[in-house]
Amino acid sequence: MSKNLKHFLGTIFMSALLLTSCSNNDDNDGDILIRPTAEDFNQLKEAALENLTQTFQFNTDDGYVTLTSDKGVQISISSSCLTLNGDAVTGTIDVEFVELFDKGSMLTTNKPTMGTLPNGDKALLISGGEFFVNATQNGAALETNCGFQMLIPGDLTGGVDNDMTLWEGRVDQDGNLAWAEVDEDAGQDGGIFGEGDQYYGFFQSFGWSNVDRFYNDPREKTTILVAVPEGYDNTNSSVFISYDGEDAGLANLDTYDANTGLFSEHYGQIPIGLECHIIFATEDGDDWKYAIKAVTIEENGIITFVEGDTSIATEAQLTTIINGLP
User: Fold this and answer.
1) 268-318 tens-digit pLDDT
2) CB of 269 within 8 A of CB of 27?
3) Could you tell me the superkingdom of the organism this chain comes from (predicted)?
C-alpha cells in the first residue's frame, strides 16, 4: 500500500472517530440543545384553543336566539342588540364559543384560573366554567348594547355553589389571561346566580368570562420557585400547579427571572403543607412535552425539573393525564 493511500485512509478513519465522538457528546451531554421557539409554543396553545372552539350561525331576522353548546350550556342573544361601530346590523351572524370546565383543557389553552386581588396580586380561583363568546359579521367583531345570557348546568361544575361570582378575562401583552371580578356593588352590570341545579349568567360584553370563587385555605402561605430544563424560559414553556382535590382550578407561575432561570409564584399565596402537582409544559414537534411532580409545599421551596423527567404526549393524551391528577 502506498504512503499516500495510507495517509488518505488514516484521515478518513480519524474523521469518522471525530464525528462519532461529537455525535455521542451531543446526545449524552446535551451540547446541542434543540428547543422550541416562542412561536412554536404559541401555535401549540392556539391549536388547542381552536380544537375546542364551537361555531354557530344565525340570521338577525331570527330575533332572540338560543344556542346550545356541546356540553349543554345555553347562550341567548338578542339580534336587535348587536352593533358594528355603533350601528345596528342585519343579516348573517357568526358566533364562536369556547367552554372550559376541566384543568387539562385550561392547561393546553393557557387559560389558568388566577384571579386578581384588590392589591394586584393573583391567587387561585376555583372555577364553575370559563367561557369565550364572540359574535362577528364578515369577520368584523360585533358588540352588544344589551348584553346576553347563559344558562350553565350545575352538573358540569360539581353542583351549584352560591359563593361563585362573575369574572372578566383580561389578556396581557404576552397573551396570558388573568381574571378580574365583576363588582356589582360598584355598579358594574352583569352577574351570576345559582337556582336549582343551574347557574344563570348575565354578561354585558363579548370575550372571556368565568364563574369563580377564590380558593380558601387557612394555612400559612409561602412563595415557591421552579427550575426547568436548560434552554427553556417563560417564552417557550409554562409551569402550572394542580391543587390535589380540586378538579376545576389551575394555578400558574406567571413570573420568570432570566438571571436565575427560575419561575416564581412571588405573591406568597401558596399554602404551606399543600399537596399538589407541579407541571412543566412545552412544545416538541407539534406535540406536548411535559413533566409532573407530586409535591408537598414547603416554605420557600424550590422544585427542579430536568430533561430526564419529561415525556411526550398529544394534546388529547395530556388533557387526559392532567384531568387524572388527584
Assistant:
1) 999 999 999 999 999 999 999 999 999 999 999 999 999 999 999 999 999
2) no
3) Bacteria
For the chain, the residue count is: 326
Distance CA 15, CA 192 (A): 71
Q: Nearest 5°: phi and psi at 58?
A: -150, 170
Alpha helices for 81-161 (secondary structure H): 103-108
Residue 185, pLDDT score: 58
Q: What is the pTM of this model?
A: 0.88
CA pair distance 36, 281, nearest whole angstrom = 12
Is 276 in contact with 197 (CB distance < 8 Å)?
no
Q: Is the pLDDT of residue 254 over 70?
A: yes
Domains of the chain plus CATH, in order, are 46-214 (2.60.220.30), 218-323 (2.60.40.10)
Q: Give the model's pLDDT for residue 175.
A: 78
- Mean pLDDT, rounded, for 154-183: 90
CA-CA distance, 141 to 237, in Å (whole number)?
A: 31
46 pLDDT higher than 70:
yes
At residue 277, what is the residue type? H
CB 263 within 8 A of CB 206: no
Query: What order do you get walking across the sheet with 74-78 strand by strand?
Result: 64-68, 74-78, 148-153, 198-203, 191-195
Given a cut of 80, whether residue 78 has pLDDT beyond it is yes
CA quadruple 193, 194, 200, 205: dihedral sign: positive
Q: What is the mean pLDDT of the chain?
A: 90
Q: How far apart are CA 60 and CA 80, in angstroms?
A: 7
The region that residue 242 occupies, defined by phi over 0 for left and psi between -120 and 50 for alpha, beta otherwise, is: beta
Maximum Cα interatomic distance, the chain, rounded to a whole number of Å: 96
Q: Are 295 and 239 spatial neighbours (Cβ–Cβ below 8 Å)? A: no
CA-based nearest residue to 53, from 73, 69, 29, 72? 69
